Amino acid sequence: MGENGAGKSTLMKILAGAYIATSGEILIDGKPFNIKGPKDALAAGITLIYQEMQLAPNLTVAENIFLGSELSRGGLVQRKEMAAQAQAVIDRLGAHFKATDLVMKLTIAEQQQVEIGPRAAPQQPHSGDG
């Protein structure tokens, strides 16, 4: 695909919004698109899954998908709602595991699908004062 140091990883990180381009132009569907961060990339349908997975193997798929963005109401984590939303994401991805499965029980390919989950989950504000 390219020699070491050719810029493949840098290009991917620019497209994913992890790095900011200092020159050149990004075109999406033939139109200039300025990616200033991960939210811009996600809005364009671009996400990067790193080789080194960032999953908590002892947690469920749903808990991993919402890790750091848990749905809560009245100070209580809404586990059933998180599981339902996570299962909808899993189904949309065409995966064949459950939101309640432990990540450590999944294959590597399935774990990579879980990595995609937070990017595909509905972005909802959460708060403890419900």
From TrEMBL:
One of its GO terms (molecular function) is ATP hydrolysis activity. It is an enzyme of class 3 (hydrolase). Pfam families: ABC_tran (PF00005). Its EC number is 3.6.3.17. It comes from the Bacteria. InterPro entries: ABC_carbohydrate_import_ATPase (IPR050107), ABC_transporter-like_ATP-bd (IPR003439), P-loop_NTPase (IPR027417). Residues 1-116 form the ABC transporter domain. Gene3D superfamilies: P-loop containing nucleotide triphosphate hydrolases. Keywords: ATP-binding, Cell membrane, Hydrolase, Membrane, Nucleotide-binding, Translocase, Transport. PANTHER family: CARBOHYDRATE TRANSPORT ATP-BINDING PROTEIN MG119-RELATED (PTHR43790), D-ALLOSE IMPORT ATP-BINDING PROTEIN ALSA-RELATED (PTHR43790:SF3). This is Ribose import ATP-binding protein RbsA. It comes from Leclercia adecarboxylata. The lineage of its organism: Bacteria, Pseudomonadati, Pseudomonadota, Gammaproteobacteria, Enterobacterales.
